[in-house]
Amino acid sequence: MTANKPSSLMRKLSEMSIECNSTTEDEGQAEKINLLNHSRYLLDKSSLEHKVKSVFDLPESETLLDEFPCYIIRLVTLAGWMYITSHYVCFYAALPEKKKGPYKAGYLSKKNHRTSPRTYRYYFELRNHILSWYTSAETKYLPLNSIDLKCIKKIELSKFKKFGIRLTSDSHHHTLIADSELSQREWMDELRKGVFIAQHTGNSVRIVLPFSKILTVDKPSVFQFAANIRIKFQEDSNEGNPGEDVSNLFLFF
Q: I need a labelling partner for 157 at 20 to 30 A (CA). Which of 18, 193, 237, 244 fits?
């Protein structure tokens, strides 16, 4: 993806059309109405462009090319707006009023050593953004350990453990194993909510993607129920391995 306008993300700005209520209105008057509405449109676009650059902290040289109402799917589904400028793709969504954080408790198995295949069964409790585990449900006096979900960079299904969930931070990998597919799905949902709430403490979500970070834009066939695109992009890597930090944004229109 170059810094040019990406054809896969662009659509031409809709042409303004005016329907005249009076059949006796002459062409000169209709032209004046068209020019007036077009001038208002340009003023609105200029105001919006200024707001977009301010909200996303974009350079003054950026030009707003188009905007789209859409839904974005990452850890949760959010309704918002996508803005395309001359060098960036931006997404903004206002968060709903803060609600009580997730809570879930139950038994999971956990690997304690990376090199050992052995797992141990503990009683886990997720309260807001803290995941703690205990020897059993009867010994909840002091947790054996805890994970602050603010530090989690990625949460995904394990590729190697049946019903497994993998949590990745900058320094650790944690593999949790549920008892069933249903339990795995329930824990995944609550952990994703916990990570999202922990990492978005404000009242909005803002995403800025430079064109230089975008690898591909396509329409995945897995989603047939709505118009959608997938943006695959390169995340900043702290370990210097750029090929390993590729993420996807799913957008529905």
A: 237
d(CA 169, CA 178): 20
d(CA 10, CA 213): 17
CA distance 141 to 84: 52
How many CA atoms are closer than 13 Å to the CA of 47, on its beta-carbon side?
6
Give me the pLDDT at residue 163, please. Answer: 93
Closest CA to 230 of 103, 38, 80, 89: 89
Task: Read off the tokens for 171.
Answer: 């320094």
**Closest CA relative to residue 8, chosen from 222, 223, 214, 247:** 214
Q: Express each pLDDT in 86-129 by its tens digit.
A: 999 998 887 766 556 678 999 999 987 777 778 899 999 998 88
What's the pTM value of the predicted model, to 2 decimals?
Answer: 0.55
Q: Cβ distance 104 to 123 under 8 Å?
A: no
Whether the Cβ atoms of residue 121 and residue 149 lie closer than 8 Å to each other: no
Dist. CA 242–CA 235, nearest whole Å: 8
Is the Cβ–Cβ distance between 133 and 143 less than 8 Å?
yes
